[in-house]
Structures are given as structure tokens and as C-alpha cells.
Design goal:
alpha+beta; seven-stranded mixed β-sheet; 7 strands; 23% helix; 38% strand
Length: 112
């Protein structure tokens, strides 16, 4: 992703979005695992339709895939930062069809 920032932030607005839209058990699970999803994703995708620096990090946890959507704010600037936009359990495998797979750690190789 060529990002220089080493920290990711989640805004109170993003937390409220998660709290309002997710069942309580999914909200708690995501909060407990979002760091793992971001630090060690199994897959990294980029939205085909957006020109901004938005990526989806996907990790399989207990045979279920979870996604954390991140955005790089002020890309390549001194005040660059990574923000978590949302996170959720992937319920429909078709969800990622509008995304380009950039990297897969499942097989240890770059995607093509």
C-alpha cells in the first residue's frame, strides 16, 4: 500500500457506525480482533471504483472472513494517517467482486 504511517486510528464516528449497525456480539468480536485484521490480513484489496487510497483488509478468523476497510488520509504527506472506516463479518462472498486483489498471504505470493 506504500503507506508510511505505522499506526491506524478509528474515529468515534466509525465506532458509532459499528455500534449502530452490528449485532452486539459482532461489535464486541470486531473490537477484539480489528487490530489482528489490520496487522496480519490474509488478503488486501483495493476498490476498483474509488480514486482515493481506500483498501479492504480481509482475515479469516474461526473459518469466517472479516473485513476492515481503511483509508489513508493525506497520502505521502508528513501528516499521513490510516483510519479504519468500517469493519464487519463478510456474509456474501460476492461482496469483494468490485475489488482488485493486491496481495494474498494465504499462498505467500503477490497476486497478479
Amino acid at each position: 500500500m506504500h503507506c508510511h504511517s505505522r499506526k491506524a486510528y478509528i474515529t468515534s464516528r466509525a465506532l458509532k457506525h459499528l455500534y449502530d449497525k452490528k449485532p452486539a456480539e459482532e461489535f464486541d468480536f470486531i473490537l477484539d480482533h480489528v487490530i489482528s485484521i489490520i496487522r496480519t490480513p490474509d488478503y488486501i484489496y483495493r476498490d476498483k471504483n474509488l480514486k482515493s487510497q481506500r483498501f479492504c483488509l480481509v482475515k479469516e478468523i474461526n473459518t469466517t472472513q472479516y473485513l476492515a476497510a481503511i483509508e489513508i488520509i493525506n497520502f505521502n504527506e508528513p501528516d499521513e494517517e490510516i483510519q479504519v472506516v468500517t469493519s464487519f463479518r463478510i456474509r456474501d462472498s460476492k461482496y469483494l467482486r468490485n475489488y482488485d486483489l493486491l496481495r494474498s498471504w494465504r499462498d505467500g505470493a503477490h497476486s497478479s
